[in-house]
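Standup notes
- HV: blocked on the assembly model, inputs below
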Amino acid sequence: MATTVQPTAVAVPKPRGIAKYLAWSIDHKVIGIQYIATSFFFFLVGGFLAELIRIELLTPAASLMVDGGAYNTLFTMHGTIMIFLFVVPMLAGFGNYLVPLMLGQKDMAFPWLNAFAFWMLPPAGVIMLAGWLVGPAQAGWTSYFPLSGPQYSPFDGQTLWAISLHLVGASSILGAVNFIVTILNMRPPGMTIWQMPLFVWATLATSIIILVATPFLAGGLTLMLLDRLAGTSFFSPATGGDPLLWQNVFWFYSHPAVYIMVLPAMGILSEVLSVHARKPVFGYRFIALSSLAIGFLGCIVWGHHMFTSLASWARIPFMLTTMLIAVPTGVKMFSWIGTLWGGKIRFTSAMLFALGFLSMFVLGGITGVFLASVPVDIHLHDTYFVVAHFHFVLFGGSVFAIFAGLYHWFPKMSGRMLNERLGKIHFALTYIGFFLTFFPMHFLGLEGMPRRIYTYDPKYEALNVLSTIGALIMAVAIVPFLVNLAVSLVAGKPAGSNPWRALTLEWMTSSPPPDHNFDEPPIPASDPYGYGTPEGAAYLASGGKMALPDSGGGHAHTDQPIERPATGD
Amino acid sequence: MKLNRFAIYIIVGAVFIAIGVFVGLTARLFPVAASAEAAAVDSLFNFMLAIAVVVFLIVEGGIIYSIIRFRRRPGDETDGAPIHGNTALEITWTAIPAVIVFILSIYSYQVYVTIRNPEPKDNEVRVGVIGQQFAWKFTYEMPEDDDPEVTPELRERIKQYMIDSTLYVPLNRPVRAIIESQDVIHSFYIPEFRIKQDATPGRVSEAYFTPIEKGEWWVICAELCGVGHAAMSQINRVVVLEQSEFDQYIATLYAKAKETASDPRSPEVGRQLVINKYACGACHILDDAGLVGNIGPSLNGIATRAEGHAERGEGLVGGTDAAAYIRGSIVNPNLYLVPGYAAGIMPQNYGNPNVMSEDDLEAIVNYLLTIR
């Protein structure tokens, strides 16, 4: 009885319409959309920087950039913005919007904390961009010492970079605590942990990783700030520090960060594939457990980012753990194909992006195994092969899933459908542009072209031209999506509560849902992916009102906090 | 009927494996293999590539087959078959990748053990590799010298001039590169040898390779090191020589070093230092020495400009003349900044005598005073 999800003091009238999204709100749906809109803005900023990078690389000589410093700033900000201000908060936005709805709740466990976590992001973004006013960071998103130290990066932008990431990290930790508490304690009666939607599973696994890894980012950034501002020397070799300490701490966070950016995307994928193929998710438990396995393994592989700097004996154990990650990742890939197999696939825009993920992410996974092998990685480390690899994971994976999720849940969020024709144009251009941009980079890396250079050996020119053409196609691709968003928001076809005839709880209320989400506590389907079963059909027909015969199983959870045993004193 | 489908799977699988084997046997995606170690890495890579191609074809084939075979037909509003899983199948596709990565790990470990070669060999050549912003430089061991006039002290002095901006290595002999950095992290990378090793300041690391092909390639910096990082990959060459040519090169380098050591502050010594030991051409233009860098200001006509700065009292160290301006520009580059160039780009540690000796500094100043 101690906590309640209701705000305690509400005297001010609630803002309506757009204003609602510009103001402080503790409604998880408003916060979710705030996250999504903010991070989408940064996607456009980061994308613009990427286009500048590709235009510079069109020719082997310097063309756009005044010097290497300007170019170093471009990819530093592109990487940092895309990771910390786009993918991570975008997926947190999906989590915020969807998790309480999928659990049939009216809000997250800690609504105020939720709002607080979001409102750390806009200042983080402003501080990051403010770098351009004072001399921006240019040591790469990895900011290796001593290059990022006070001697070699005397400009204040590097300090702002660290402060901004501190805020993003803190926001991420607070969000993770909220998700874990919500998911473990607020499942509705009739939903055991083995009946949770897979997106909720993925969010749970992600939140655990965030809680384990992100404090290391905070620790590393604190030491960086001390080195830069207070004259300490944790990382500076000239005065007894160790540059490899930064690499260890940084990658102990930043490798798991890859899974922070990929697991929720995989969760989105499981939802979208099942609904639009009209077929149960194949191997539910294997998919759920593989998220946890990836989360665990993801925390013990960081050394593979240091295969050219670690002592040679230390490279072997990291090779083994890294190779192992291919196993649970493979399980997911095969299970998703199993989900398609025998389905009735509907080629909606959401489904197309999900299929785009499937067909592109596999390449990122395969190239990851090459990079796990120490002898092969020694040749490929810090070349364009690595750039290709992580873009197939993070763009071919996460970004495709994010678009799939936007097309899938936009009707729920706005109450209106997106235009399917524009969606398909968006998909086709993105898919072609993506492949053309990043596939040639594999061959550049195999030939030995190092990354992070703005002038290059002319023998690499032809593939770079292809890559730049691809990037320009992607720039065009975003236009139909922006038009679609703007037009559909005001004139889209009304969505109704469940346009995809899905079984998860977020579809068992109106679109958009009322402030309190559900008029009466919803009863979850016994199988959230029971497509093709009589129970599933009956559940859909009843609009989620019908309790199913076998839905009472498992331990019932309520939205009450865990009861603490009374203490003696 | 059921047997038929099984036969089709077998045939498709066999075709995929055949394609994988073909690609693995024929693909040449790496640059020329110029070291003995490269062959082992290349075989490992192509073995992985063959497996990767098969996995890729199975997954993409599965996706493409599904979207064609299981697409919704117009008017069909029914759901797919409610198949929730197949435990045997799921265990299979967990176990097979596990076995594959287990094999790859063992194979990779074996290759790694053979190429890293930590034990010193009798016939190995040792070269020093030093990374600086924004060039590599290479130091060589001195040959024997029975000249009675060469005292141990003189030999110490000669040693510091056994340095060059090109890496010369003999054919068919193992080379042990001892890698250090003078400032930030660089990464010593020669794609044709398949070696890469970070040069981390404060640490000494090593790389091993045995050149088996005569030729000339770039020595690349693979780790971001600052504004001149891109330029650093197109400055230094590695040249593989016959043993006799290599001996000749070392003898010549030694003779020159010996001469330099006898008159260490002469302008001609300064010119050699600017070209080789300090790699000023990474950033500066200087026609007299053939320097073509474009990161820092041009050094053409520097002596004339230095007189003007001396009159205005700008950036002087250790005096009030033109020499003091040049000296100041080297040991404390931020003291006076040429308009259009930012602070902190030039290395800040040339004032440290362990990085640039007093002799070297004066030789360079004396040389630059001749550039009008």
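- HV (later): unblocked. Chain B has three domains: 2-65+93-116, 125-262, 267-368. The domain at 125-262 of chain B is CATH 2.60.40.420 (Immunoglobulin-like).
- Next: hand off to the docking folks.
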